[in-house]
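Q: I'm writing up a methods section and want to include an example of the input and output format. Could you take the sequence below and give the corresponding predicted structure tokens, formatted cleanly so I can copy it straight into the document?
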Amino acid sequence: MGKGFDQYAAKYDAWFLENPNVLLSEVRLAAHCLRDAGRVFSVGCGSGLFEKILKEDFGIEVREGLEPSAGMAEIARKRGMTVSVTTAENYDFGTERYDTILLNGTPSYITDLKSVFEKAYAALRPGGRIVVIDVPKESSYGLLYNLAKAVGTWDHPLLAGCYPPNPYPMEFVEVANWRTTAEKIELLTAAGFERLESAQTLTRHPLCSDTAAEEPQPGFDRGDYVAVCGYKPGHE
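A: Here is the clean output for your methods example:
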């Protein structure tokens, strides 16, 4: 996984910058979930693009993270982050150090999500939160991505006229495993997280999702990018 993203690290940033309203909508959702987040650890921080915008535009600092792609991690380091080059499954989080653990757009690239949620739970301080944000499998984007993955290209008659002008690069689509929101909620609950909350964005059809930036909305019934937050019981 990391090697694939090494090859396309620049392409990853370029896609977001070519879809600025999608990017802003997604960053606003992350910022909504990271209010009063304390010490944050970002699982799969990529190039640190989101973390850079969160700091500059929202005053939210995310200084630490992990990233399997050495190429991505190097860009994130240049943006001021401390990044370990490893997978979430292999990383040693330690115990009860963080106030918030963020998985933004990364659950679909984590094979053993169950073990990662369990390790995140152990690494959070009592009362700490996990923020899980991704494209749901059941969403419009999720269905489009899985269809494109099945046929191996965006250039297919079944997809003609259905996807945005700048679709997510096939290199990233092909290696993803999107999960439903219900699956992620089930795994979070099994790991011990409580008081689960959700928020969503990108509520327009994918053809129109970059026409204007959106503010986060509660729930997960119509968004193509959905956040689920859960809390570790207890107080410091």
